[in-house]
Design brief:
Helix content is about 40%, strand content about 15%. It contains 5 helices and 4 strands; from the N terminus they run βαβααβαβα. β3, α4 (about 80-90) and β4 (about 95-100) form a beta-alpha-beta unit. It is globular, with a radius of gyration of 16 Å. A 4-stranded parallel β-sheet has the order 1-2-3-4.
Length: about 140
């Protein structure tokens, strides 16, 4: 399945339909916060709004929209809200991965204890169950 994984600035009203017409069926964007303050902290100022605009362009073009998040202690509390946002904007897929610090980064900046991560997963499952019961078609 031809897919694109790129920054939000590459998904515009003119490029998205062209990619779709050329056979691209899926586009992946990053979503690292449920609001601009958190997402932009991980990316760059203005990128949250740019991501939402890109998501709309992708959906309008007919491509499948995948949203991916990297979760750490810095944005974990917002993950259930990110799941809700993904459903509201019509993402076809929302997925996340746990952040793994690289050499030289202080582990405590991003670390989540196992029980803390388990509680987060349970909160996410509760949110997903609520959305599914309400008819949400996003795959989580």
């Amino acid at each position: 399945m031809p897919a694109a994984r790129s920054g939000a600035s590459w998904a515009t009203p003119s490029t998205s339909p062209t990619r779709c017409a050329l056979g691209c069926v899926k586009y992946q964007l990053s979503l690292d916060g449920a609001n601009a303050a958190t997402h932009d902290l991980f990316r760059k100022p203005g990128s949250f709004d740019e991501t939402l605009r890109a998501a709309e362009c992708i959906k309008r073009s007919g491509m499948l929209l995948t949203l991916m998040s990297t979760v750490s202690s810095m944005n974990a509390a917002e993950l259930p809200d990110m799941i809700g946002l993904a459903a509201r904007i019509g993402a076809d897929v929302f997925a996340f991965g746990r952040y793994c610090p690289t050499k030289g980064q202080r582990l405590e900046e991003f670390h989540m204890e196992p029980l803390e991560y388990r509680a987060l997963l349970l909160a996410c499952q509760k949110r997903i169950d609520e959305l599914t019961a309400a008819g949400c078609t996003t795959t989580f």
